[in-house]
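MODEL INPUT / OUTPUT PAIR
PAIR INDEX: 1
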Amino acid sequence: MASSEIVDPTSNTDVSLRRKFLHVGVPVIGVLLILATIGGIGWHTYQTTRTGVLKLTRQLLVSVQRYVVQDVSDYLGGATIGGVFAKDFVSHAPPSVTNNAFYAYSASMLRLVPQIQSYYLGDQNGGFILVERDPGGKGLEYTELRTGPAGGIFHHEFHDEDGKVIRTEENPADNYDPRTRPWFTGAINKDSLAWSAPTIYANTKQLVITASVSLAGSDSVKRVFAVNVSLNLLSQFLDGLKISEHGNAIILDGSGHIIAGHNFSKVVERSGNDPSKMTLDPKTQPAFQMVYDQYRVRGAGSHPFSRNGKNYIGMAQTLPSTNGWVLLMIAPESDFASFARQSGRESLQFSIIIVVLAVLLAGLLARQSRRTERVNHALSRQKAQTDTEAAALQQVAVSPGLMDASSEALVLTEELTRVTGARRASLWRMLHDGTALICDDNFDARVEGHSGGFELSRNEVEDFFKLVDAGSIVTVEAAAADPRTASFERFVMRDAGTRSLTVCPIRGTNQGRSEIVGVMTLEDARFAPYLVYFLEIISAIVAVRYGNSAEIVDSEKDAAPDTSAAKSLAPTRFDETLMQAPKVGGEAGNGLYPSVAVMVIAFSDPVLENDDTGAKLLPLIDRIASEVQDIARRYNLFSVKVAGHRLICMAGCTKDPDPTAVWRLAEAALALRETCMMLLSAANIEPIFSIGMDFGPAMGGELGEDPKIFNLWGETVTLAELMAQGAPDVGTIEVTERVYQALRNRYLFRSRGSFYAPRSGTGRVYVLATRR
């Protein structure tokens, strides 16, 4: 099992989750609680303020209403109180001075009370006198109805401000009779004050209303005293009344006619100067209409209502000393609650400021906590990394044979992957002439497997060699996209699926000169850019190893294993039915052979330019067969068989393991490849063969009767044939991982990746390049 697949069951993530909750969750929850608290306080304050404002508004409107009622009463007081006073004053005057008393009282009142337009006095005998303001000046006009030969006439006397007569006039009365007028008929038989309907006063064209009261003089003649009050001044008073920013007031009589109020001039214009048509218009005065309807149903008092999404406060109050007049007032609730909204907005603004500050503080707290946690984690990682590096160096230091060229230094690549977090780590040794790199060891941390023996020539990866020659540690995040490492990625990294590459040249000393003696490569190393000093330590150790082992490697690289035991083996056997050869003796016998080396040479049909196939091929095939026989004898191969387009060569078919079998077969493969290449080239034929090798146990024995035929079968034979069939190019020698492990110290290989074989599973494939 790979180390990446190992899970520690004792690891506990609860601590990390709790820490994140304390560092992030608690500040966030605190901010939310602050928001909820501020929002609740703001809403409660708004509701409390609004309720208080509405209550205060109603009280204020009641006070305003009382004030308006009082002012209207005072406005009409000239008629009400004046009528009562005149009734007593005039009725007790002697008949001879009744008119003079009326004139004196009326003149005084007209000078003192601006809203009074005129005074009437009529009796049951048809007499009529009038005092009114002079419409053309500031004086008074006295009018008396007189009877002449030609009928009734009006005698007018115009007085200036000092009471002097300016001029007199007379004009026909046109049968005017005061006893037929509404102000007279309504009051003659009534003890209390009577109000007539509003009328347009002829002289001033203003709307007036008349209050009249009956009185009886000492001469027992019934008279009616009347006062005309101007409603235009009352409307001006109501228009000038500041109820609220958008509040208004209006006065209606008992029949619903408008007496005075807001925009009274428009009401008069709309009615065409007809007082009977001066009523509320639902289109232009809908709010007053709603209040008046509620008044008629519920009576006087406060009548709040809503219209078009806006709240209004309506008030209705009857006016005393009038004939059922009612005062209506309306005001939008927003006029009085605006400061509450303003207060709410200011509270919201302050709340937002508080929330922003709270969020900022919470963010700073969380950020500080996270930074503290990151620093602690960084310190923990740094300490753990330091401990890991110390442990790795200690492991390297105690490894036996680290500087011995005959032993593998697997601990170096293993510790490199563990410390740097790399997927794969490789150690490459530079050949003395600098033309090639040989992989001493390649460790794959995912599968925890070692490999080596790969060879890279400068011609194949020239840009990569230039990068190594530069002598600096370089990390390339995308090796395939960088021209310096693209060729290395194609040959070495692509099969493993790695992406990034760290190149650490190994600088050593050769004959007193400092030069590049090798290179360390790390694939997908997460921490390599931060561990330059560790890589330099390991590269120094590898440089010492290469320096100490240089002479040993040079002296042994061409040495062959001891083959003295192979000379006692039986002579090579050939398939007698296909290739003629001398008979052999000393058979190895039947059974299981523990270390058989099998080589399969697969030929394909050549492409010729004419039909003279036999004349071309038969001599060539005969020459190849003879060379195969010579090579088989030279390297003491056990058997050579021909099967169709295939040659099967075997070595090591003995009961006891033969350590030289795989080496002898590899030498035979190199010699056979060179011979075939030379013969085919001489015949002007492109290479038409590929070679596959495997090494391992196999079953074998002689079959049949005389002549007996030796046959070998098993997984080793099958895999050798698969290697020959799957060779990447013609003329190449493809071998299994077992052959690679047995020959890696003496031959150069290139990795071909992985392959799948039925019943055998997945394995790695290599190409045998040449001898070291």
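PAIR INDEX: 2
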Amino acid sequence: MNAPAPRRLVALLALSGALSAALPVWSAPPVPGAVSTEAGRLAVRHEKFMLPNGFEVILVEDHRLPLVAFNLWVHAGPRNEAPGQTGFAHLFEHLMFAGSRHVPRGEFDKFVDAAGGTDANGSTNFDRTNYFFTLPSNQLALGLWLKADMLGWMIDEVDSVALANQQDVVRNERRQSTENQPYGIVEEAMYQALYPAGHPYRAVVIGSHADIQGIQLKDVKAFARTYYRPNNATLVLAGDFDPKQAKALVTKYFGTLKAGPKPPEVKVAMPVITKERRLVVTDRIELSRLNLAWHTPPMFAAGDAELDVAAHVLGGGKASRLYGLLVRDRQLAQSVQVSQQSQSLSSVFDIEIVARPGASLDEIEALVDAEVAKLATTPPTEAELAQARAVIETQLLQHMEKVGMLADLVNHYNQMAGDPDFVGRDLARYRQTTPVAVSATVAQWLKRDSRVVVQAKPGEQVLAAEVATPPMPTKAAKGERESLNAPEPWRNKPPGAAKAGTLSLPAAQSFQLANGLTVIHSQKAGLPLVSASLVVRAGQGANPADKPGLAGFTAAMLPEGTTTRSAQQIAEAAAALGATLTTQAGGEEARVEFSGLKAVAGQGLALLADVALNPAFAAPEIERLQAQRLAALAQAREQAPLLANAIGNRVTYGEGHPLGANALGTEASIKATDAAALRAFWQGHYRPERAALVVAGDLGEAELRALVEPLFGRWKPVGDAAPAAPLPPAGPIAARTVLVDKPGAPQTALAVVAPGPFAAAPDAADIGVMNAALGGLFTSRINNQLREVKGYTYGMFSGYTMGRERGQFGIRGSVRTDVTGAALADMWKEIEGMRAKPMTAAELSRVRNAQLLSLPGQFDTNVAVVGGYAGNWAVGRPLSAITDLPAKYGAVTAASALRAARQHLDPAQLIVVAVGDKAKVQPQLEAIGRKVEVRDAEGKPAP
């Protein structure tokens, strides 16, 4: 249940785009899917019908996987809120999960877990609220039963207790996402400057504390009567189902819901700014930021597509103009982001630049103005337009790969364009635009006197007056509940599952090149997409003791120039393919990854091979990355959760341990890194016998061999291999509490950590099921107690990181400052309870099924398959580890899960790291009997 940041809030990151003329049109996939081409036109086969009560249903039959996505859109968002009720639509989204007449409070998500659901959540943007999950296809009836009860009988269960609880949860979400998040209040200030009082877009989606707390039960009921009716909602089913059966079940479950009145129309004129508005916002940030924002045409209106293209040209990645100018050449900026945030009433074109330390925002603004003015007078090149189209097309197809995202796309087009299959016409907008049109549109809309300029600078964070959190009511008063629809007793019993097919997961095969490189291949027919990851045993654990951060620095340098290409040429090559090319270093391995269309797989793998095998380590690029990584160190101090994790690693592994240091390194180690150190690390660790190339997608083995042999077969090790020394063991651990002061923080970020088992642990499945019950699921004991019962947090979750030679347990999340001590006390009770006795049969069945039956939904994209097999190779698991998962999860018992808890969940080893307001938090910690060590942001004892 979330409220996304007010960027372009549509299902697909809003980057629906054109079939690039530079790329071949692909043919319909051999697997029976919903996506097809008709005379070169991308289309989604669907059937749309309406029940007598006005409920819209769209069926998208797609048999690629045994999954069905359920995607319900209610056509109400902040655009429909009354004055003084900002955040109402989003609060209502949360209430929809609080129970209904036939689904008891707290049971909705448990049904989804027990059925093996994935991607279960809801979200609110300015124009709509959606509710979604994906279930195994034999649970079609259950999914419809749940969705119908949410829409038709949720209001029956909303009372003062449920409302108060979700008000607390949403206010915690605001603290976490807006007030305790760098630049959160800056985004809010920008929208308030763009839109006048009374405009529904003026407030960010989440609303204000005063408005959220001021919402009353009568307001909730009125909103439900007006907007949460079948004639104001649309359900998309996408996936593996029989349409005839689906129609009958939809009619059964939704047909008796009573239609409501026609919701009032929202007619708001687009605001007009005739004189530049400037403001400075101070926030608890390390790096200053510049935002330039304009009102632009609504979604799908004339000019919207041209401004999408302009956003790509100016700031759509490393090949863009502003990235090249501000990040690469002038080195004034840490990051560049440009977007056309399309919405129904009006859109916002936003240029966002995070400055390097010491850089002048005024200088950055002048350079940005010059680039915008240049684009307004000189059309982009055909190559820039082709790059934008290629990126847009690939991103669109990648989002259609997942049935849940496909369902959301169809619902998006249905509401915003009036046509579920608008994708073809949407693509045509980009195909038809020209460089001249892009330039003219920029000149028309991006004028200096019609914009808002926001400078965010480090300083005091100024928030609205504190709004007290009332005590949670213990019970509802009489007469608080009412109904929109008559009770139907037959709905009290959830429908049973149909017969399930054999649970199978994507298998992989492997072969080895003569130089020792392992190639792992999983063929996935369907959309013409391919993903690949070159995994190398060159992670943080391989860092020399005196060079923390070297593994990450080496990985970051790979795409910054090879012996034949400059960093700019690499970025342009990836953009021309519409592909993503990324590098990263984790704890034990580094990865170079590519994703793109099958048609460019050969070129994409060639680019991947070039950056991995032929890095230049040029001095100018090293100097640039040094400055960038030093700035990233400063940025990490801004974010309390990241800081809690970093300190948690330091105290878990101990001083001097490679995994205890910040993955970025230290200021001294970053400054000391030179070409010799980088090349020596690369030569010692980036070697074919210590690497695996993992590929998934629409490629057969013969096709893959033909691509891989010429590119990687000639890879020869350079120099001597680095000794394969095992990681040192973690230092001795004793339970303690570490506090990092963050004065004025509205929340305390917690990381409760301890050493954990390695990947080779024979009871890994038992650990996974046990952790799901403790804190791994939304319905877990810890999250339920701290969020749903107490309202202390927006979310608190636990997990095990199990590597080849490392292991860690952690519970992470943020809580309201004034309940830090109480939240930890409750957390400890749940941990002790997990170790005290076996789970009940009902709980075990639910959490085990949540792991077992959800497996197909966890491997439903090429990226997910590659990630799974690459991760298994990195930690030393066999190739069969993924396909063996069903049997392993199926064998977990209450007794084996209890043994796992007692063996791998030791309160005597748990270290609490709390990042928050010391003056308010320390007394709470001491009151619950915890001795507190105060440390600074580097993890060192504070004076």
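PAIR 2 NOTE: The chain is about 40% helix and 20% strand.
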